[in-house]
Protein backbone atom coordinates (compact mmCIF):
# COMPACT_ATOMS: atom_id res chain seq x y z
CA UNK A 1 0.00 0.00 0.00
CA UNK A 2 2.74 2.46 1.01
CA UNK A 3 4.74 1.52 -2.09
CA UNK A 4 1.73 2.26 -4.30
CA UNK A 5 1.15 5.58 -2.54
CA UNK A 6 4.77 6.65 -2.99
CA UNK A 7 4.63 5.64 -6.62
CA UNK A 8 1.50 7.74 -7.14
CA UNK A 9 3.13 10.73 -5.46
CA UNK A 10 6.19 10.33 -7.64
CA UNK A 11 4.08 10.21 -10.81
CA UNK A 12 2.17 13.30 -9.64
CA UNK A 13 5.41 15.23 -9.09
CA UNK A 14 6.71 14.19 -12.51
CA UNK A 15 3.52 15.45 -14.11
CA UNK A 16 3.79 18.74 -12.22
CA UNK A 17 7.43 19.23 -13.18
CA UNK A 18 6.69 18.40 -16.81
CA UNK A 19 3.93 21.02 -16.80
CA UNK A 20 6.35 23.77 -15.81
CA UNK A 21 9.44 22.51 -17.63
CA UNK A 22 8.53 24.26 -20.86
CA UNK A 23 10.93 26.88 -22.08
CA UNK A 24 10.00 30.51 -21.55
CA UNK A 25 10.21 32.74 -24.64
CA UNK A 26 12.58 35.70 -24.36
CA UNK A 27 11.06 38.69 -22.60
CA UNK A 28 11.95 42.20 -23.76
CA UNK A 29 11.12 45.04 -21.38
CA UNK A 30 11.38 48.57 -22.78
CA UNK A 31 12.06 51.39 -20.32
CA UNK A 32 11.79 54.95 -21.60
CA UNK A 33 13.27 57.44 -19.16
CA UNK A 34 11.63 60.31 -21.04
CA UNK A 35 8.14 58.97 -20.42
CA UNK A 36 7.83 60.40 -16.93
CA UNK A 37 4.67 59.20 -15.17
CA UNK A 38 4.98 61.32 -12.05
CA UNK A 39 6.09 60.62 -8.48
CA UNK A 40 6.18 57.05 -7.18
CA UNK A 41 5.09 57.37 -3.54
CA UNK A 42 6.91 54.99 -1.17
CA UNK A 43 3.82 52.93 -0.36
CA UNK A 44 6.10 50.01 0.60
CA UNK A 45 7.70 51.87 3.56
CA UNK A 46 4.88 50.80 5.89
CA UNK A 47 4.98 47.79 8.27
CA UNK A 48 2.89 46.40 11.09
CA UNK A 49 2.42 43.59 13.59
CA UNK A 50 0.05 42.26 16.26
CA UNK A 51 2.48 42.08 19.17
CA UNK A 52 3.50 45.63 20.26
CA UNK A 53 5.75 44.42 23.09
CA UNK A 54 8.10 42.79 20.55
CA UNK A 55 9.01 46.36 19.57
CA UNK A 56 11.59 46.84 22.33
CA UNK A 57 12.85 43.26 22.57
CA UNK A 58 16.26 42.24 21.23
CA UNK A 59 15.35 41.03 17.75
CA UNK A 60 12.53 43.55 17.48
CA UNK A 61 14.88 46.50 17.94
CA UNK A 62 17.37 44.97 15.50
CA UNK A 63 14.75 44.56 12.79
CA UNK A 64 13.32 48.03 13.33
CA UNK A 65 16.81 49.45 12.89
CA UNK A 66 17.14 47.59 9.59
CA UNK A 67 13.73 48.76 8.42
CA UNK A 68 14.60 52.36 9.23
CA UNK A 69 17.83 52.05 7.26
CA UNK A 70 16.35 50.52 4.11
CA UNK A 71 14.38 53.62 3.24
CA UNK A 72 15.40 57.19 2.39
CA UNK A 73 11.98 58.29 3.72
CA UNK A 74 10.53 57.76 7.21
CA UNK A 75 9.06 54.29 7.71
CA UNK A 76 5.59 54.12 9.23
CA UNK A 77 4.82 51.41 11.79
CA UNK A 78 1.37 50.18 12.87
CA UNK A 79 0.85 47.91 15.90
CA UNK A 80 -2.18 46.56 17.74
CA UNK A 81 -3.16 46.62 21.42
CA UNK A 82 -1.70 49.97 22.46
CA UNK A 83 -4.45 50.53 25.03
CA UNK A 84 -4.92 46.92 26.18
CA UNK A 85 -4.72 46.22 29.91
CA UNK A 86 -1.90 43.97 31.11
CA UNK A 87 1.67 43.72 32.30
CA UNK A 88 3.42 44.13 28.94
CA UNK A 89 4.17 40.43 28.52
CA UNK A 90 4.66 39.54 24.86
CA UNK A 91 2.73 36.62 23.35
CA UNK A 92 1.40 35.57 19.96
CA UNK A 93 -1.43 37.85 18.83
CA UNK A 94 -1.36 39.61 22.19
CA UNK A 95 0.10 42.77 23.64
CA UNK A 96 -0.62 45.18 26.47
CA UNK A 97 0.49 48.52 27.89
CA UNK A 98 -1.72 49.11 30.97
CA UNK A 99 -2.23 52.66 29.76
CA UNK A 100 -5.62 52.92 31.47
CA UNK A 101 -6.88 51.54 34.77
CA UNK A 102 -9.23 52.92 37.43
CA UNK A 103 -8.85 53.36 41.16
CA UNK A 104 -11.31 51.92 43.69
CA UNK A 105 -13.59 54.91 43.18
CA UNK A 106 -13.71 54.49 39.40
CA UNK A 107 -11.41 57.41 38.66
CA UNK A 108 -9.07 57.10 35.64
CA UNK A 109 -5.41 56.23 36.17
CA UNK A 110 -3.19 56.86 33.13
CA UNK A 111 0.21 55.22 32.76
CA UNK A 112 2.05 55.85 29.49
CA UNK A 113 5.25 54.00 30.45
CA UNK A 114 4.92 51.08 28.02
CA UNK A 115 3.31 53.12 25.23
CA UNK A 116 6.20 55.56 25.48
CA UNK A 117 8.71 52.72 25.38
CA UNK A 118 7.15 51.48 22.14
CA UNK A 119 6.94 54.90 20.48
CA UNK A 120 10.38 55.94 21.73
CA UNK A 121 11.81 52.91 19.91
CA UNK A 122 10.24 54.13 16.67
CA UNK A 123 11.10 57.82 17.08
CA UNK A 124 14.73 57.10 17.98
CA UNK A 125 15.08 55.42 14.57
CA UNK A 126 13.40 58.20 12.61
CA UNK A 127 10.24 56.12 12.17
CA UNK A 128 6.66 57.31 12.58
CA UNK A 129 3.94 55.46 14.45
CA UNK A 130 0.55 54.85 12.94
CA UNK A 131 -1.06 55.40 16.33
CA UNK A 132 -3.79 52.79 16.47
CA UNK A 133 -6.36 53.79 19.07
CA UNK A 134 -7.36 50.47 20.60
CA UNK A 135 -8.19 48.14 22.01
CA UNK A 136 -10.60 48.51 24.95
CA UNK A 137 -9.01 48.69 28.43
CA UNK A 138 -10.45 46.17 30.86
CA UNK A 139 -11.93 48.86 33.15
CA UNK A 140 -13.79 50.41 30.20
CA UNK A 141 -15.00 47.22 28.51
CA UNK A 142 -18.73 46.62 28.49
CA UNK A 143 -17.98 42.88 28.63
CA UNK A 144 -14.61 42.60 30.38
CA UNK A 145 -14.45 38.90 31.20
CA UNK A 146 -12.70 36.91 29.96
CA UNK A 147 -10.14 39.56 29.05
CA UNK A 148 -6.69 38.03 28.41
CA UNK A 149 -6.51 35.26 25.81
CA UNK A 150 -3.76 32.63 25.53
CA UNK A 151 -4.00 31.77 21.84
CA UNK A 152 -1.36 29.62 20.19
CA UNK A 153 -0.98 28.26 16.65
CA UNK A 154 -3.52 25.51 16.11
CA UNK A 155 -6.15 27.05 18.40
CA UNK A 156 -9.41 28.41 17.06
CA UNK A 157 -8.68 31.89 15.70
CA UNK A 158 -11.91 33.18 17.23
CA UNK A 159 -10.48 32.49 20.71
CA UNK A 160 -8.59 35.80 20.56
CA UNK A 161 -11.73 37.95 20.62
CA UNK A 162 -12.18 38.51 24.33
CA UNK A 163 -13.05 41.48 26.58
CA UNK A 164 -10.72 43.92 24.78
CA UNK A 165 -12.93 43.74 21.65
CA UNK A 166 -16.10 45.22 23.17
CA UNK A 167 -17.49 48.76 23.11
CA UNK A 168 -16.86 51.00 26.11
CA UNK A 169 -19.14 51.14 29.11
CA UNK A 170 -18.65 54.91 29.13
CA UNK A 171 -18.00 56.81 25.87
CA UNK A 172 -17.00 59.99 27.70
CA UNK A 173 -14.32 58.18 29.68
CA UNK A 174 -13.07 56.65 26.44
CA UNK A 175 -12.96 60.09 24.84
CA UNK A 176 -11.00 61.48 27.76
CA UNK A 177 -8.51 58.60 27.50
CA UNK A 178 -7.89 59.42 23.83
CA UNK A 179 -7.60 63.14 24.61
CA UNK A 180 -5.03 62.50 27.36
CA UNK A 181 -2.99 60.21 25.08
CA UNK A 182 -2.75 62.77 22.29
CA UNK A 183 -1.93 65.59 24.74
CA UNK A 184 0.76 63.43 26.35
CA UNK A 185 2.25 62.62 22.92
CA UNK A 186 2.47 66.31 22.02
CA UNK A 187 4.12 67.06 25.35
CA UNK A 188 6.65 64.25 24.92
CA UNK A 189 7.47 64.46 21.20
CA UNK A 190 6.40 67.95 20.18
CA UNK A 191 3.53 69.20 18.05
CA UNK A 192 5.53 69.22 14.81
CA UNK A 193 6.30 65.52 15.21
CA UNK A 194 2.83 64.35 16.26
CA UNK A 195 1.23 66.27 13.38
CA UNK A 196 3.00 63.84 11.04
CA UNK A 197 1.46 60.76 12.64
CA UNK A 198 -1.66 58.97 11.49
CA UNK A 199 -4.11 58.40 14.36
CA UNK A 200 -6.56 55.63 13.52
CA UNK A 201 -9.41 53.92 15.33
CA UNK A 202 -9.41 50.15 15.90
CA UNK A 203 -8.74 47.25 13.56
CA UNK A 204 -11.07 45.23 11.32
CA UNK A 205 -14.29 46.29 13.09
CA UNK A 206 -16.36 44.36 10.55
CA UNK A 207 -15.20 41.03 12.03
CA UNK A 208 -14.42 39.72 15.53
CA UNK A 209 -12.05 42.51 16.48
CA UNK A 210 -15.15 44.60 17.22
CA UNK A 211 -17.93 43.00 19.27
CA UNK A 212 -20.25 45.94 18.81
CA UNK A 213 -22.54 46.93 15.97
CA UNK A 214 -21.62 49.06 12.96
CA UNK A 215 -23.47 51.97 14.53
CA UNK A 216 -21.58 51.53 17.80
CA UNK A 217 -18.29 51.69 15.91
CA UNK A 218 -19.46 54.90 14.24
CA UNK A 219 -20.36 56.32 17.64
CA UNK A 220 -16.94 55.35 18.97
CA UNK A 221 -15.32 57.00 15.94
CA UNK A 222 -17.15 60.27 16.58
CA UNK A 223 -16.04 60.35 20.20
CA UNK A 224 -12.49 59.41 19.20
CA UNK A 225 -12.16 61.95 16.40
CA UNK A 226 -13.54 64.68 18.65
CA UNK A 227 -10.98 63.85 21.34
CA UNK A 228 -8.05 63.78 18.92
CA UNK A 229 -8.99 67.12 17.38
CA UNK A 230 -9.60 68.76 20.78
CA UNK A 231 -6.13 67.71 21.88
CA UNK A 232 -4.44 68.65 18.59
CA UNK A 233 -6.62 70.29 15.92
CA UNK A 234 -3.97 69.63 13.25
CA UNK A 235 -3.72 65.90 14.03
CA UNK A 236 -4.70 63.40 11.32
CA UNK A 237 -7.51 60.98 12.24
CA UNK A 238 -8.85 58.16 10.05
CA UNK A 239 -10.45 54.75 9.68
CA UNK A 240 -12.28 52.40 9.51
CA UNK A 241 -9.69 49.63 8.81
CA UNK A 242 -12.33 47.21 7.48
CA UNK A 243 -10.98 43.99 6.03
CA UNK A 244 -12.02 42.35 2.78
CA UNK A 245 -13.88 45.19 1.02
CA UNK A 246 -14.60 42.80 -1.84
CA UNK A 247 -16.96 40.91 0.49
CA UNK A 248 -20.42 42.43 0.20
CA UNK A 249 -20.90 42.57 3.99
CA UNK A 250 -17.59 44.42 4.39
CA UNK A 251 -18.42 46.80 1.55
CA UNK A 252 -21.70 47.58 3.32
CA UNK A 253 -19.85 48.39 6.57
CA UNK A 254 -17.36 50.54 4.63
CA UNK A 255 -20.07 52.50 2.84
CA UNK A 256 -22.13 52.96 5.99
CA UNK A 257 -19.11 54.49 7.69
CA UNK A 258 -18.29 56.79 4.76
CA UNK A 259 -21.95 57.82 4.45
CA UNK A 260 -21.82 58.89 8.09
CA UNK A 261 -18.60 60.84 7.50
CA UNK A 262 -20.25 62.77 4.68
CA UNK A 263 -23.83 63.22 5.85
CA UNK A 264 -24.50 61.51 9.18
CA UNK A 265 -25.41 63.14 12.47
CA UNK A 266 -22.35 63.36 14.71
CA UNK A 267 -22.83 61.64 18.08
CA UNK A 268 -20.78 64.29 19.91
CA UNK A 269 -21.53 67.59 18.20
CA UNK A 270 -24.95 66.93 16.73
CA UNK A 271 -23.68 68.47 13.50
CA UNK A 272 -23.49 66.84 10.08
CA UNK A 273 -20.49 64.61 9.40
CA UNK A 274 -17.31 63.82 11.26
CA UNK A 275 -13.58 64.51 10.71
CA UNK A 276 -11.77 62.13 8.37
CA UNK A 277 -8.23 62.90 7.18
CA UNK A 278 -7.37 59.54 5.62
CA UNK A 279 -9.14 56.29 4.75
CA UNK A 280 -8.06 52.76 5.64
CA UNK A 281 -8.99 49.20 4.70
CA UNK A 282 -7.29 45.78 4.47
CA UNK A 283 -6.62 43.48 1.50
CA UNK A 284 -5.56 39.83 1.65
CA UNK A 285 -4.78 37.00 -0.78
CA UNK A 286 -5.82 33.39 -0.35
CA UNK A 287 -3.16 30.65 -0.83
CA UNK A 288 -4.11 26.99 -0.91
CA UNK A 289 -2.40 23.62 -1.19
CA UNK A 290 -3.18 22.20 -4.63
CA UNK A 291 -1.86 18.79 -5.75
CA UNK A 292 0.78 18.84 -3.04
CA UNK A 293 2.15 22.36 -3.61
CA UNK A 294 1.28 25.88 -2.53
CA UNK A 295 -0.75 27.93 -4.97
CA UNK A 296 -0.98 31.64 -4.23
CA UNK A 297 -3.94 33.84 -5.15
CA UNK A 298 -2.75 37.38 -5.74
CA UNK A 299 -5.95 38.06 -7.63
CA UNK A 300 -7.98 37.83 -4.41
CA UNK A 301 -5.82 40.51 -2.79
CA UNK A 302 -6.03 42.79 -5.81
CA UNK A 303 -9.82 42.38 -5.98
CA UNK A 304 -10.01 43.63 -2.39
CA UNK A 305 -7.90 46.64 -3.32
CA UNK A 306 -9.88 47.26 -6.50
CA UNK A 307 -13.23 47.24 -4.66
CA UNK A 308 -11.85 49.37 -1.83
CA UNK A 309 -10.56 51.98 -4.27
CA UNK A 310 -13.86 51.94 -6.17
CA UNK A 311 -15.81 52.57 -2.97
CA UNK A 312 -13.62 55.52 -2.01
CA UNK A 313 -13.73 56.94 -5.54
CA UNK A 314 -17.54 56.94 -5.44
CA UNK A 315 -17.50 59.74 -2.82
CA UNK A 316 -16.50 62.98 -4.62
CA UNK A 317 -15.60 64.81 -1.40
CA UNK A 318 -13.45 61.93 -0.14
CA UNK A 319 -11.84 60.67 -3.34
CA UNK A 320 -8.60 62.61 -2.96
CA UNK A 321 -8.00 61.78 0.71
CA UNK A 322 -4.90 59.65 1.39
CA UNK A 323 -5.64 55.93 1.44
CA UNK A 324 -3.66 53.56 3.63
CA UNK A 325 -4.12 49.85 3.02
CA UNK A 326 -3.64 49.07 6.70
CA UNK A 327 -2.76 45.42 6.05
CA UNK A 328 -1.85 44.24 2.56
CA UNK A 329 -0.65 40.64 2.48
CA UNK A 330 -0.78 37.26 0.70
CA UNK A 331 -3.17 35.93 3.41
CA UNK A 332 -4.64 36.80 6.77
CA UNK A 333 -2.78 35.32 9.76
CA UNK A 334 0.87 36.22 10.37
CA UNK A 335 1.11 34.03 13.49
CA UNK A 336 -0.35 30.92 11.80
CA UNK A 337 2.82 28.94 11.25
CA UNK A 338 3.66 26.80 8.25
CA UNK A 339 3.92 23.65 10.35
CA UNK A 340 0.19 23.80 11.17
CA UNK A 341 -1.01 25.66 8.08
CA UNK A 342 0.74 24.15 5.02
CA UNK A 343 -0.75 26.75 2.67
CA UNK A 344 1.63 29.21 4.31
CA UNK A 345 4.75 27.36 3.16
CA UNK A 346 5.58 30.24 0.80
CA UNK A 347 6.91 32.49 3.56
CA UNK A 348 10.53 31.44 4.07
CA UNK A 349 11.66 31.35 0.48
CA UNK A 350 11.60 33.37 -2.72
CA UNK A 351 7.90 33.00 -3.51
CA UNK A 352 7.11 35.62 -0.83
CA UNK A 353 9.68 38.01 -2.30
CA UNK A 354 8.55 37.69 -5.92
CA UNK A 355 4.89 37.96 -4.87
CA UNK A 356 5.75 41.16 -3.02
CA UNK A 357 7.49 42.73 -6.01
CA UNK A 358 4.70 41.83 -8.43
CA UNK A 359 1.83 42.82 -6.14
CA UNK A 360 3.17 46.22 -5.10
CA UNK A 361 3.59 47.26 -8.73
CA UNK A 362 -0.09 46.47 -9.33
CA UNK A 363 -1.20 48.48 -6.29
CA UNK A 364 0.23 51.56 -8.00
CA UNK A 365 -1.61 50.65 -11.21
CA UNK A 366 -4.95 50.13 -9.45
CA UNK A 367 -4.68 53.48 -7.66
CA UNK A 368 -3.98 55.22 -10.97
CA UNK A 369 -6.90 53.46 -12.66
CA UNK A 370 -9.33 54.69 -9.98
CA UNK A 371 -7.79 58.14 -9.63
CA UNK A 372 -7.31 57.78 -5.87
CA UNK A 373 -4.49 58.87 -3.58
CA UNK A 374 -2.67 55.76 -2.32
CA UNK A 375 -0.29 56.85 0.45
CA UNK A 376 0.76 53.51 1.92
CA UNK A 377 0.31 49.74 1.92
CA UNK A 378 1.21 48.14 5.25
CA UNK A 379 3.02 44.81 5.09
CA UNK A 380 1.74 43.00 8.17
CA UNK A 381 4.94 41.15 8.96
CA UNK A 382 7.61 41.70 11.58
CA UNK A 383 9.37 39.07 13.72
CA UNK A 384 8.45 36.58 16.44
CA UNK A 385 10.75 36.37 19.45
CA UNK A 386 12.07 33.04 20.74
CA UNK A 387 10.55 30.83 18.04
CA UNK A 388 12.07 27.97 16.06
CA UNK A 389 14.28 28.97 13.14
CA UNK A 390 12.32 29.46 9.90
CA UNK A 391 9.17 28.10 11.49
CA UNK A 392 7.08 29.64 8.76
CA UNK A 393 5.46 32.67 10.33
CA UNK A 394 4.72 35.62 8.07
CA UNK A 395 7.73 37.62 9.22
CA UNK A 396 10.64 39.56 7.78
CA UNK A 397 13.32 37.93 9.93
CA UNK A 398 13.76 34.85 12.10
CA UNK A 399 15.90 34.99 15.24
CA UNK A 400 17.53 38.17 13.97
CA UNK A 401 18.30 36.77 10.50
CA UNK A 402 16.62 38.45 7.52
CA UNK A 403 14.42 36.48 5.16
CA UNK A 404 14.51 36.92 1.36
CA UNK A 405 11.37 39.08 1.33
CA UNK A 406 13.10 41.82 3.34
CA UNK A 407 15.58 42.25 0.50
CA UNK A 408 12.79 43.21 -1.90
CA UNK A 409 12.01 46.11 0.43
CA UNK A 410 15.70 47.00 0.34
CA UNK A 411 15.36 47.07 -3.45
CA UNK A 412 12.33 49.36 -3.22
CA UNK A 413 14.39 51.63 -0.97
CA UNK A 414 16.93 52.08 -3.76
CA UNK A 415 14.30 53.18 -6.28
CA UNK A 416 14.18 56.96 -6.15
CA UNK A 417 12.49 59.66 -8.19
CA UNK A 418 9.54 59.40 -10.57
CA UNK A 419 8.02 56.40 -12.27
CA UNK A 420 8.78 55.95 -15.97
CA UNK A 421 7.25 53.71 -18.61
CA UNK A 422 8.25 50.03 -18.54
CA UNK A 423 6.44 48.04 -21.22
CA UNK A 424 6.55 44.80 -23.14
CA UNK A 425 6.42 45.71 -26.86
CA UNK A 426 3.38 44.92 -28.99
CA UNK A 427 3.98 41.97 -31.23
CA UNK A 428 5.44 39.55 -28.73
CA UNK A 429 3.94 36.08 -28.58
CA UNK A 430 2.58 37.04 -25.16
CA UNK A 431 2.19 40.53 -23.76
CA UNK A 432 2.23 39.31 -20.18
CA UNK A 433 0.06 40.46 -17.32
CA UNK A 434 -1.34 43.86 -16.54
CA UNK A 435 -3.15 44.71 -13.31
CA UNK A 436 -6.57 43.86 -14.77
CA UNK A 437 -5.62 40.39 -15.95
CA UNK A 438 -3.84 39.61 -12.71
CA UNK A 439 -6.78 40.94 -10.65
CA UNK A 440 -9.25 38.79 -12.57
CA UNK A 441 -7.32 35.55 -12.96
CA UNK A 442 -4.13 35.79 -10.86
CA UNK A 443 -1.08 34.05 -12.41
CA UNK A 444 -2.20 30.60 -13.51
CA UNK A 445 -0.99 30.50 -17.13
CA UNK A 446 2.48 31.68 -18.18
CA UNK A 447 4.67 33.32 -15.50
CA UNK A 448 4.44 37.03 -14.81
CA UNK A 449 7.74 38.52 -16.00
CA UNK A 450 7.44 42.28 -15.70
CA UNK A 451 9.04 45.43 -14.36
CA UNK A 452 8.64 48.68 -12.43
CA UNK A 453 11.01 51.54 -13.29
CA UNK A 454 12.00 54.92 -11.86
CA UNK A 455 14.49 57.67 -12.65
CA UNK A 456 16.13 60.79 -11.26
CA UNK A 457 18.44 63.27 -12.98
CA UNK A 458 21.43 61.04 -12.29
CA UNK A 459 20.01 57.52 -11.95
CA UNK A 460 17.53 54.91 -13.13
CA UNK A 461 16.21 51.79 -11.43
CA UNK A 462 14.40 48.84 -12.98
CA UNK A 463 12.82 46.20 -10.73
CA UNK A 464 12.16 42.95 -12.64
CA UNK A 465 10.36 39.90 -11.26
CA UNK A 466 9.61 36.37 -12.45
CA UNK A 467 6.53 35.30 -10.54
CA UNK A 468 4.03 32.45 -10.67
CA UNK A 469 1.22 31.50 -8.27
CA UNK A 470 2.34 27.86 -8.27
CA UNK A 471 5.29 27.10 -6.00
CA UNK A 472 6.83 24.61 -8.42
CA UNK A 473 10.22 24.44 -10.14
CA UNK A 474 10.40 25.92 -13.59
CA UNK A 475 12.81 27.28 -16.18
CA UNK A 476 14.53 30.62 -15.84
CA UNK A 477 13.31 33.52 -17.94
CA UNK A 478 15.63 35.09 -20.55
CA UNK A 479 15.12 38.83 -20.07
CA UNK A 480 16.45 41.85 -21.92
CA UNK A 481 15.85 45.28 -20.46
CA UNK A 482 16.19 47.99 -23.13
CA UNK A 483 16.56 51.47 -21.66
CA UNK A 484 16.28 54.65 -23.70
CA UNK A 485 16.84 58.26 -22.72
CA UNK A 486 20.12 57.66 -20.86
CA UNK A 487 22.40 60.72 -20.99
CA UNK A 488 26.12 60.49 -21.71
CA UNK A 489 28.20 57.67 -23.08
CA UNK A 490 28.51 55.43 -20.03
CA UNK A 491 26.56 54.45 -16.93
CA UNK A 492 27.46 52.37 -13.91
CA UNK A 493 25.32 49.26 -13.50
CA UNK A 494 24.77 47.43 -10.21
CA UNK A 495 22.62 44.32 -10.46
CA UNK A 496 20.95 43.23 -7.21
CA UNK A 497 19.26 39.84 -6.98
CA UNK A 498 16.98 37.76 -4.75
CA UNK A 499 16.75 34.11 -5.79
CA UNK A 500 17.65 30.63 -4.55
CA UNK A 501 21.35 31.50 -4.40
CA UNK A 502 21.41 35.21 -3.62
CA UNK A 503 20.12 37.27 -0.69
CA UNK A 504 18.61 34.11 0.77
CA UNK A 505 19.37 33.03 4.34
CA UNK A 506 16.72 30.30 4.18
CA UNK A 507 18.56 28.34 1.49
CA UNK A 508 21.83 28.91 3.34
CA UNK A 509 20.23 27.48 6.49
CA UNK A 510 19.02 24.42 4.60
CA UNK A 511 22.49 23.88 3.14
CA UNK A 512 23.77 23.81 6.74
CA UNK A 513 21.42 20.91 7.43
CA UNK A 514 18.62 23.08 8.90
CA UNK A 515 20.17 23.28 12.38
CA UNK A 516 17.69 23.82 15.21
CA UNK A 517 20.36 25.67 17.20
CA UNK A 518 22.91 27.22 14.84
CA UNK A 519 26.34 27.95 16.26
CA UNK A 520 27.58 31.54 16.55
CA UNK A 521 29.65 31.01 13.41
CA UNK A 522 26.63 29.69 11.54
CA UNK A 523 24.49 32.60 12.73
CA UNK A 524 27.08 35.05 11.41
CA UNK A 525 27.01 33.24 8.05
CA UNK A 526 23.21 33.36 8.00
CA UNK A 527 23.15 37.05 8.83
CA UNK A 528 25.47 37.71 5.90
CA UNK A 529 23.39 35.49 3.59
CA UNK A 530 20.30 37.47 4.58
CA UNK A 531 21.64 40.77 3.23
CA UNK A 532 20.94 42.12 -0.26
CA UNK A 533 23.55 40.80 -2.67
CA UNK A 534 24.64 41.62 -6.20
CA UNK A 535 25.19 39.58 -9.34
CA UNK A 536 28.91 40.12 -9.76
CA UNK A 537 30.43 43.55 -9.26
CA UNK A 538 29.14 46.89 -10.46
CA UNK A 539 30.43 47.73 -13.93
CA UNK A 540 30.44 50.43 -16.57
CA UNK A 541 28.09 49.84 -19.50
CA UNK A 542 28.13 51.65 -22.85
CA UNK A 543 25.29 53.91 -23.93
CA UNK A 544 24.86 54.21 -27.71
CA UNK A 545 24.68 57.51 -29.57
CA UNK A 546 20.88 57.48 -29.32
CA UNK A 547 20.93 57.24 -25.53
CA UNK A 548 20.05 53.57 -25.41
CA UNK A 549 21.50 50.52 -23.76
CA UNK A 550 20.51 46.87 -23.66
CA UNK A 551 20.89 44.70 -20.56
CA UNK A 552 20.33 40.96 -21.08
CA UNK A 553 20.23 38.49 -18.16
CA UNK A 554 18.52 35.33 -16.98
CA UNK A 555 16.04 35.50 -14.10
CA UNK A 556 15.17 32.31 -12.20
CA UNK A 557 11.57 31.46 -11.36
CA UNK A 558 10.41 33.42 -8.28
CA UNK A 559 13.50 35.60 -8.64
CA UNK A 560 13.67 39.39 -8.42
CA UNK A 561 16.35 41.66 -9.93
CA UNK A 562 17.01 45.34 -9.45
CA UNK A 563 19.07 47.03 -12.16
CA UNK A 564 20.51 50.23 -10.71
CA UNK A 565 22.12 52.70 -13.12
CA UNK A 566 23.97 55.89 -12.21
CA UNK A 567 25.76 58.49 -14.32
CA UNK A 568 27.44 61.85 -13.94
TrEMBL record:
It holds the Pfam family Glyco_hydro_39. The keyword Signal applies. It comes from the Bacteria. One of its GO terms (biological process) is carbohydrate metabolic process. The active site is at 204 (proton donor). Residues 29-530 form the Glycosyl hydrolases family 39 N-terminal catalytic domain. The keyword Hydrolase applies. Residues 1-21 form the signal peptide. Keywords: Glycosidase, Hydrolase, Signal. One of its GO terms (molecular function) is hydrolase activity, hydrolyzing O-glycosyl compounds. Belongs to the glycosyl hydrolase 39 family. This is Beta-xylosidase.
